[in-house]
Amino acid sequence: MKKILLVCAAGMSTSLLVNKMKDEASQQGIDVEIKAVAKEKLTENIEGANVVLLGPQIGYLEDDFKEAYKEMQIPIRVINSIDYGMMNGKKILAEAL
Amino acid sequence: MNNEMKIMQLIAQGGDARSYAMKGIALARKSNITEAKAAIKTGRDAVTKAHHIQTELIQKEASGEKQEITLLMIHAQDHLMNAMTVLDLAEEFIYVYEREEAK
After folding, report:
1. Distance, CA of B97 to CA of B91 (rounded, Å)
2. What are the chain B neighbours of A16 within 8 Å (beta carbons)?
3. What is the pLDDT of residues A31-61, one digit of tens each?
4. What share of chain A is helix, strand, coil (3-state, %, to 5)?
């Protein structure tokens, strides 16, 4: 099963997005684990993730994270702020898979 | 746009602005002053978008249409305030780096 990890400053706004993405996944019958964590908790949650998506508010950390976790070879991307603001779970899920 | 969407816009645009401000500081540290200033400009544009929504919400409340205060709304206000502060300070940082460069 694929694991998508969403990261933001407190894990609050991404938690809402996780719910939208989970709804979308269950509607489409996709078996996927989606989890939101605060940026301080990334290290203890990154194991086994297929992709890491950053909230736009911590987009500036993209390069730092890529450098810190480069040996794990997990794609790390920033969520488009328009999709994020509109809570476009469908699009963000499709891009993550 | 429903209220949850508006709140998420505040978080996304405010967050984007803060992120550009932080990128601006990092660029200035590496002596890319022009790019740093461009990042601040992009950040200002994002915060302006957030502020339009904020103004709309405040005007509604001022005209008697009470707004529901949720924890998420407070969180969004936190993001917006943080974005504006970090942008202002980032401009100062860039100014200082630029002055150091000129020496």
Report:
1. 10
2. 4, 8, 72
3. 999 999 999 999 999 999 999 999 988 989 9
4. 55, 20, 25
Asked if B5 lies within 8 A of A85 by C-beta distance, the reply is yes
Domain B3-102 has CATH 1.20.58.80: yes
Distance from CA of B91 to the nearest CA of A (A): 16
Residue B1, amino acid: M
Beta bridge mates, A7:
A37, A54
Catalytically annotated residue among A4, A5, A6, A8? A8
Domain harbouring A58, CATH code = 3.40.50.2300
Number of domains in chain A: 1
Residue B100, CB half-sphere, CA atoms under 13 Å: how many? 12
Q: Is A11 left (phi over 0), alpha (psi -120 to 50) or beta?
A: left
pLDDT tens, position by position, A66-93 = 999 999 899 999 999 889 988 899 999 9
pTM of the model: 0.84
Structural domain of residue A92, as residue ranges? 2-96
Residue spans of the domains in chain B: they are 3-102
B11 touches chain A (CB under 8 A): yes
